[in-house]
Amino acid sequence: MAGGDSGGGDVVFSRPFRAPGELENLDRVLRSDHSHGDGVFTASATARLREITGAGHVLLTTSCTHALEMASMLLDLGPGDEVVLPTFTFPSAATAIVTRGATPVFADIDPRTGNVDPESVAEAVTERTRAISVMHYGGVAADLDALEAIARPRGIPIIEDNAHGLGGVSGGRRLGTEGAFGAQSFHDTKNVHCGEGGALLINDERYVARAEIIREKGTDRSRFLRGAVDKYSWQDAGSSYLPSELNAAVLDAQLAAFDEIQRRRRAVWDAYAAGLADWAGEHGVDTMSAAPGLEHSAHLYYLLLPEHEDQQALIAHLKARGVRAAFHYIPLDSAPAGLRYGRRVRPLDRAARFHDRLVRLPLWAGMTDAEVERVLDGVRSFRP
Amino acid sequence: MAGGDSGGGDVVFSRPFRAPGELENLDRVLRSDHSHGDGVFTASATARLREITGAGHVLLTTSCTHALEMASMLLDLGPGDEVVLPTFTFPSAATAIVTRGATPVFADIDPRTGNVDPESVAEAVTERTRAISVMHYGGVAADLDALEAIARPRGIPIIEDNAHGLGGVSGGRRLGTEGAFGAQSFHDTKNVHCGEGGALLINDERYVARAEIIREKGTDRSRFLRGAVDKYSWQDAGSSYLPSELNAAVLDAQLAAFDEIQRRRRAVWDAYAAGLADWAGEHGVDTMSAAPGLEHSAHLYYLLLPEHEDQQALIAHLKARGVRAAFHYIPLDSAPAGLRYGRRVRPLDRAARFHDRLVRLPLWAGMTDAEVERVLDGVRSFRP
Ligand SMILES: Cc1ncc(COP(=O)(O)O)c(/C=N/[C@@H]2[C@H](O)[C@@H](O)[C@@H](OP(=O)(O)OP(=O)(O)OC[C@H]3O[C@@H](n4cc(C)c(=O)[nH]c4=O)C[C@@H]3O)O[C@@H]2C)c1O
Ligand SMILES: Cc1ncc(COP(=O)(O)O)c(/C=N/[C@@H]2[C@H](O)[C@@H](O)[C@@H](OP(=O)(O)OP(=O)(O)OC[C@H]3O[C@@H](n4cc(C)c(=O)[nH]c4=O)C[C@@H]3O)O[C@@H]2C)c1O
After folding, report:
1. Is pTM beyond 0.70 here?
2. A62 in ligand 2 pocket by Cβ < 6 Å?
3. Domain at B22-253, CATH class
4. How far is Cα A372 from Cα A145, in angstroms, rounded to an integer?
5. Do residues A83 and A105 lie in contact, with contact meaning Cβ atoms separated by under 8 Å?
6. If you take atom 44 of ligand 1, which residue's CA is the nearest one?
C-alpha cells in the first residue's frame, strides 16, 4: 500500500493496478502493424509467466474461462463424462465442463479455507470421473497431496483453477504447476491483468502439441509460422484462444511489475490481519489464514461472520461508511444451471454456510494507508 | 489509396489500418480503471455497429470464431445434429460446429463467386440438418434468396459468417442481417479491426436474452449490472465472450473511420479491376466481380488463373518482384479434420479447382498509388 491520503469517494472493492509502460507498449503494438495474437508481447509475457510460475509450457489465452475450456478439450471430455469440482467457485469452472456435454459433480469445501474438501471429492468420484478440478481460493493452496492420493491411483488428471493464485506456493511448489493443467486469469479484478485474459500452464508434455492446434482455431498455423509446413489447414477441434497483442502488451507491463504488485497487496493483507485479529477474536469472527508452509497470493482477504444476518449487516455498515465489501461466490450446486446440469452426492452444507457468513474486504495494490484505515475502522466499529 | 511513394521493401499482403484516436482511446481505458469487458467503448462500438449494419441486436465478442460458437450454442447443437456449410471457408466455421459435437456437412461452391452453391446445399440437407452456415466470400453476397428457399420451409436457421462482408449490400439488404445470426470478425486482417475481436448480430428476437447469458460466462451478470437482480449466479451454459475495453477502444476508433477505410479499399479494388481487365481477358484469367445489385465490401481482390501451375508461377513471379500474394482457403472437406469430423455428399470439385487457381492480391486501406502500381505491373508482366 502507498502512503498519502485516500481522497474523497468510496473505497472501491477492487481497482486494477496501473503498471509502468502500459501505454508505451500499446503504442508500440499500434506502430508494429501486428496487433493480432502471438506477436512480440505475447512472447515476452509468456516468458515472464514461465519465470514466475516455473511451468514448462505456458500458452496465453483470451481468459481463464477459455484456459479451462482448453483443458476440457485436451481431455476429450464428452457426454457421459464427469468432472468433480468445488461448488464454491466461479461459474466458469462448470461451464468449461458443460460446454463439452460432460457433467459437473459438486463437492463440498473445507470451512477453514473455502477450498474443496478431499473427503467430499472422494465421495463424488465414480467410474465416469475424468478429471478433478480444484480452485485455490484466495491463492491459499488446496490440499493437493490428499487430492493426488485420490486421483493418481485412478489415473485421473487434476486441473488447477489458479485464477486467484499466481505467485502462491505450497510446500515449495508453485500453484498451477502440480496438476496436469493450471489456468490463470488476467481479468482486471485479478492481481495481474490485461482487461480480459488468461493462460494455460501445461505440466504434462503429452498435451503440448495438440494444445497449440486447439488454441489456433484447430489449425497447424503455429507450425506454419515456424516454417515447418508450407501452408496451414484444419487439423483438429479448436477455437480461437489467442489474445491480441493489445492485451499482451498490457500483460507484459503488469508482469514486469509483479513483485511490486505483490508487495503492495501483501502489505494490505498484513494490515488487515494485524488490525482485525483482536476484534475478530472478541466477536467470534473467523479470519482468513494460510496454514504453515503455504504462501498465499494476497489476492483477497475475507472474514466469516458468526451468522448470515451479521454478514448482511456488516456489508451494509461498511457501505454506509463508503467501504465496498462483497460476498461471492454463490455455490454452484444451488444455482439454476447447477441444478439443471450438475450432480452432487449430498447437500453441500459447509459451502452454503461459508457463503452465508463471508465478507470480502477491498484489496488492491493501489490502496493508500488512509483507505486501509477506513476499512479497518469500518469493520472494528461493527458489533456482530 | 493514398498518394505518395511506396518506400522500399515488399508490398505486404495485408496491413492493419491505423485509425485516428486509437492511442487516445487506449489511454482513456487505462485511466478509467475499467478495462474488462462491457465498458463505455464497448457501448460506443456496439452503437456504431448497429448503425453500420442496421442490425437490431449486436453483441461484441472476442472473435468471429466465438460469435460462430455462440450461434451454435444458441441453436443447442449437439451430437447427431448436422450443419451444412461451404467447404471453401476458414476452419472456424467448422470448429464452431465440431466443438458442439455436431457434424459439419460440406457443400460445393459457385465458381463465379467462391460462395456456397445452393444446389449443393440442397443436396446436403437431411432430416438432421439444424442450420445452414454461409460465408460471403470477399463480401460479395451469397445467394441468400435461393438458400432461404431451401431453409425456410424446413425451419432451418441461416448463420451468416460475415467476416469479410461488413458494409456489403445485396439487393438493398445489408450482409449479416438476413440470417438468424451474422458473425463479424475484427481480426487485424479484416477491414475494421481491434487485434482480435468479433461481433454477433442477432436478427431473431428469440435468441437475445439467452445470448447475453451465454456471453457472460453463463451468468445473469448483465441483468445484475442493469439493477434487475441483486446478485448474479450461474444460469446456463456459456463462455467468456466479452472483449476487453482495450480491444473495444481500438474498434471504436476504427468504426468511426469506417467510411474512410472503405473509400480507400474501394479505390484499390477499382484500380485492380480497371488495370487488369485487358490482361485477364487476353490470358484466360477470371477476375473477381460482383453481380448487379450487389455491393461488395472491398475486403479482397482475387484472380483465377487458368491452371494450378499458373497460380504457383504467378505467386512466385510476384514474390520475386517484392509483392506478396496468397492462395487461401484450403477446402475443409479435404483437410485432416474435415475427413475425420465431416461429411460430404460427393467430391467437391469446384471448390478444389477454385483453390487451385486462386491468387489473392495485396489489399489494404493504407496502400499507396505506387504500391498499387507495383502490384499491377507485377501481374501484367506475367504470362500464364
Ligand atoms: C471467413 C472467416 N470466418 C471466420 C474467421 C475467424 O475470424 P476470427 O479470427 O475473428 O475468429 C475468419 C478469419 N480468418 C482470418 C483471415 O481471413 C485469414 O487470412 C487468416 O489470417 P492469417 O494471418 O493466418 O493469414 P494471411 O495473412 O491471410 O496469410 C498468411 C499466409 O498464411 C497462409 N494460409 C492462410 C490461411 C488463411 C490458410 O488457411 N492457410 C494458409 O496456409 C497463406 C499466406 O501465405 O486467419 C485469420 C484469422 C474468416 O476469414
Ligand atoms: C476462480 C475463478 N475461476 C475462473 C474465473 C474466470 O476468469 P476469466 O474472467 O479470466 O475467464 C474467475 C473469474 N472471476 C472474476 C472475479 O473473481 C469475480 O469477482 C467477478 O468479477 P465481477 O467484476 O463480476 O465482480 P466483483 O467486482 O468481484 O463484484 C461486484 C459485484 O458482483 C457481485 N457478484 C459477484 C460474483 C463473482 C458473483 O458470482 N455474483 C455476484 O452477485 C458481488 C459484487 O457486489 O468476475 C470475474 C470474471 C474466477 O474467480
Report:
1. yes
2. no
3. alpha beta
4. 36
5. yes
6. B326
